[in-house]
Write a structure and sequence with these properties.
alpha/beta, Rossmann fold, Structural Genomics Hypothetical 15.5 Kd Protein In mrcA-pckA Intergenic Region, Chain A, 18 helices
């Protein structure tokens, strides 16, 4: 059993901010199970390596005997999180949110332990509120407190519109902490002020205010912006091993220290050593990136899969060969075949929309020929090898 200090070191190796200072360690020193809250809004169908960073932190708490309380923001997702946004977000419908829940929840659960896990929906306590409840809630928060947020203040200074519903978002997220009596809340570092709102509301409700801990946002494969499904600069945790390896190899060299720390499970001392080796030239960036890609693959696909994916990568890019084994998929019965749906059902893409985007970009080939039409004759697909991007293949069989 790890001591509280050892727990703290293990749990916080990806944490960049923990507030109030010293409080998390004091909580661990009480040596009792803590309720660790993570709220996630289902606003996309897939789980990315960037999103997995915070799930990894939640799992480390579980491994140390603490209770993970996963809040599915099925209500707040319909409000829209304004954090780090410079304009009003499009609101989602109830059906859209539920579709995203069903798409991503099994994957999220696979990243966590089954034991010491509670899963709640915040519609349980937010949806039944009436106007009197809402007015009582808003009376606890001042406009000046909300305007402490840079995103709100910057938009105000720029005369950009800020809707009242956006002001409500951090209040609703803080209410979640009261509802489940959280001891700790974790999130990405863009969520810090939302997490601190939970402390304020818990204090007003007579609860012991939670401590908060945030992790950095993983930069996407483009090397500039945070990993995002809407930007297309992401790697899915459900990607096959070859695709995951290849996409990791595509990141800029400058991202490797962050990716080793956040996406590959390296310890702080390992990251420091690897960074030094990269800076002094004692290791070639290409070799270091291969190590990174192998580690990422093995987290999601198991021991030995990293080497197999590396060999497939070399065949494809060094030797310009197709993979030795191309997976097969059932040829749809329809004629013509709507290709986006066929690619999605064959697990080459996470959604029909992503498939349409890739077809439009010319990233889909049938037997080596680029395809730009979404509908193709069934006879064209029968026994044909379809390639999506550089690394994803499937053969459709009747």
């Amino acid at each position: 059993m790890k001591t509280p200090a050892e727990q703290f070191e293990y749990i916080t190796r990806t944490v960049d901010v923990a507030l109030p200072e010293g409080e998390l360690l004091r909580q661990l020193e009480r040596e009792e199970p803590l309720r660790v809250k993570l709220g996630v809004d289902p606003t996309a169908p897939d789980v990315t390596l960037g999103w997995a960073v915070v799930f990894d932190l939640l799992r480390r708490f579980q491994e140390m005997g603490h209770v993970a309380v996963l809040i599915l923001g099925d209500f707040t997702a319909r409000v829209g999180d304004p954090s780090e946004k410079d304009s009003t977000r499009k609101r989602l419908t109830t059906d859209e949110v539920e579709g995203y829940v069903q798409a991503c929840l099994p994957t999220i659960k696979s990243l966590l332990l089954d034991e010491r896990l509670e899963i709640r929906r915040n519609s349980e306590w937010l949806a039944p509120m009436d106007m009197a409840d809402v007015l009582e809630l808003t009376a606890k928060v001042t406009v000046s407190r909300l305007m402490d947020r840079d995103d709100f203040s910057q938009r105000f200074e720029a005369n950009e519109p800020i809707s009242l519903i956006e002001f409500m978002y951090p209040i609703l997220q803080g209410t979640d902490s009261v509802a489940i009596n959280a001891d700790i809340e974790i999130g990405g570092n863009d969520q810090l002020l939302n997490l601190l709102m939970g402390r304020d509301l818990q204090d007003r409700a007579g609860q012991r205010p939670q401590s908060v801990a945030t992790v950095p946002l993983l930069v996407g494969t483009d090397g500039t912006k945070k990993m995002s499904q809407s930007l297309g600069n992401y790697i899915s945790v459900r990607a096959d091993a070859n695709d995951m390896f290849g996409k990791t190899m595509s990141i800029p060299d400058a991202l490797m220290p962050q990716w080793f720390r956040l996406a590959a499970g390296a310890t702080p001392s390992e990251v420091e050593s690897l960074t030094s080796s990269l800076e002094d030239g004692s290791i070639h960036p290409g070799e270091l990136k291969r190590d990174l890609a192998r580690r990422v693959v093995e987290i999601y696909h198991g021991n030995g899969t990293g080497a197999d994916a590396e060999a497939a990568f070399d065949r494809l890019f060094r030797e310009k060969q197709a993979p030795d084994e191309v997976p097969t998929a059932a040829l749809p019965d329809e004629d013509p075949v709507w290709l986006p749906k066929a690619l999605s059902e064959a697990n080459l893409v996470p959604s029909n929309g992503e498939a349409r985007r890739l077809i439009e970009q010319g990233a889909v080939k049938i037997d080596g020929e680029r395809i730009i039409e979404e509908s193709v004759a069934r006879s064209v697909l029968e026994d044909a090898t379809v390639q999506v991007g550089k690394r994803r293949f499937v053969k459709f069989v009747g």
